[in-house]
Design brief:
Layout (H helix, E strand, L loop, with lengths): L14 E4 L5 E6 L4 E7 L14 E7 L2 H4 L3 H11 L3 E7 L6 H4 L3 H8 L4 E4 L10 H7 L1 H14 L4 E5 L9 H4 L8 H18 L3 E3 L1 H11 L15 H16 L15 H14 L4 H4 L5 E6 L7 E9 L3 E5 L5 E5 L3 E7 L4 E11 L2 E11 L24 E14 L4 E11 L6 E7 L2 E7 L1
Parallel strand pairs: 2-15, 4-5, 4-6, 6-7, 7-8
Antiparallel strand pairs: 1-9, 2-3, 9-10, 10-13, 11-12, 11-14, 14-15, 16-17, 16-18, 18-19
Length: 445
């Protein structure tokens, strides 16, 4: 199958769990029982009128679908009408594919870093092609672009630009792939493939194509296409601009006051309401997924401390802050046992934070240590337990094990079979220690 710009292509305890939201949950914990004290859910869109001005620096990588009607500038105009600021860069040569963007100016712009978000729009037909062609000609280059975004801006947000099916489908390529014969068929394939790219690459998806589909079904008199049945009209670009503003700033699009001169007030309002229904009302469905964190208490009677089983997904690190000035930092994406011994009885706030690409999920537990403990009582067994942590000259693991120390960049530093590992000569910072092949991060002061 081929695009228009080409000639020959075919182609007994309590558990606390957090998932895909910026949620902080506070619990009260005693040795005898667990009592739910309060659960607070903080949603960034609760009171948009009280928000301070936000600024975003965004790179748009795409082709004519982004260039027509100057989508980046229109997103900036929409943001300005809401009291926010968008500065942007763009590289949008006509018909350009992800593969071409991997070796042109787009990659140079990505490598400059400093972007709050990078928008990625593939050539308009490619993601709707058969699975084998998409697997060979789209997905590897989508990953390469996202990997470069994260490599040059750990907190940058990759955001795929879900485009739309052509007004009457892709009649030429329908001869080879019949699902493309209609708008509905082509549009459904585009939606599925962009969502696949978002999930596979830890990226957000701006569902412009879904907004267009909603408008086509509910407001068929609103013309979203230019005469070629492919490129966006001013109304189509406005739908995209409002969608991107909503994704980037998390604010309700119905409050947007900017509208292009080519649209009536009623048309602009119809588009904003559609964006509110499709995008804003389901923001978490389109945003990259936050880390998942589950914390389960391990019963420790008469033990001067606390212990938890910690499970995490989609995160790089899990930090346990024990409330007495000490922390333990684990590699994310695994099951670990987190234990801590306190010097004195008292009330301690224990905070678990799972982090990835500057996105956090947090569980907070208030622990009351109200007994002295038995002097010769062994602490509970904690997997990957190293002490002290942070360390100065040596860390201990309690028993003989294969110990391997790496830099956070993955460079092998030291290896030994022992019950402790010397740290002399290492710079202060974070290191990855594996104990019999299981990883834990240690911090040296």
């Amino acid at each position: 199958m081929k695009s228009e710009s080409e000639t020959q292509r075919l182609g007994d305890s309590e558990t606390w769990k957090l998932g895909d939201s910026a949620t902080s949950v506070t619990f009260k914990m005693r040795k005898e029982k667990i009592t739910l004290l309060v659960a607070l859910v903080f949603l960034p869109w609760v009171a948009t009128s009280l928000r301070a001005q936000e600024s975003k620096h965004v790179l748009f990588v795409g082709n004519s679908y982004t260039e027509v009607n100057n989508l980046p500038r229109m997103v900036g105009d929409v943001a300005a009408s809401m009291g926010d600021v968008l500065t942007y860069g763009s590289h949008t040569p006509g018909g350009c594919t992800f593969q071409q963007h991997c070796s042109n100016e787009s990659m140079q712009l990505i490598r400059q870093g400093g972007w709050d978000a990078v928008v990625l729009q593939e050539q308009s037909q490619y993601p709707s092609f058969p699975d084998s062609q998409v697997a060979a000609e789209v997905l590897p280059y989508a990953r390469r672009l996202v990997d470069s975004i994260y490599a040059h801006g750990w907190c940058s947000e990759p955001m795929f630009y879900m485009t739309w099916g052509r007004r009457d489908g892709d009649s030429y390529n329908a001869r080879f792939f019949p699902p493309l014969a209609s708008y509905e068929g082509m549009d459904s394939l585009l939606c599925a493939r962009y969502m696949q790219m978002g999930a596979a690459n830890d990226a957000s998806v701006c569902p412009v194509g879904r907004v267009w589909r909603y408008l086509r079904r509910n407001h068929p008199d609103l013309e979203l296409y230019q005469s070629d049945g492919s490129h966006p009209s001013v109304a189509g670009t406005y739908a995209a601009a409002c969608s991107f503003y909503t994704m980037l700033f998390g604010r309700n699009p119905v409050d947007i006051s900017y509208r292009p001169d080519a649209l009536t007030a009623a048309e602009a309002q119809t588009i904003r309401q559609a964006v509110g229904t499709v995008v804003y009302d389901s923001l978490s469905a389109w945003q990259r997924r936050r880390p998942a964190l589950q914390v389960t208490e391990i019963d420790t009677p008469q033990y001067m401390g606390c212990a938890f089983a910690v499970e995490s997904e989609r995160c790089d690190t899990v930090r346990c802050s024990w409330g007495d000035g000490s922390d333990t930092l684990f590699v994310g994406g695994q099951h670990v046992s987190a234990c801590h011994t306190y010097a004195t009885p008292g009330s301690y706030t224990v905070t678990f934070t799972a982090s990835r690409h500057c996105l956090d999920s947090v569980v907070v537990v208030t622990s009351f240590v109200d007994q002295e403990g038995i002097a010769d009582l062994e602490p509970p067994t904690c997997g990957l337990h190293v002490h002290p942590n942070p360390a100065i000259d040596k860390v201990h693991v309690g028993e003989q094990a294969e110990l391997v120390l790496y830099s956070l960049a993955g460079r092998l530093l030291r290896r030994c079979h022992a019950d402790s590992l010397p740290l002399e000569g290492l710079a202060s910072g974070g290191y990855l220690l594996t104990v019999d092949g299981e990883p834990v991060i240690i911090i040296k002061r």
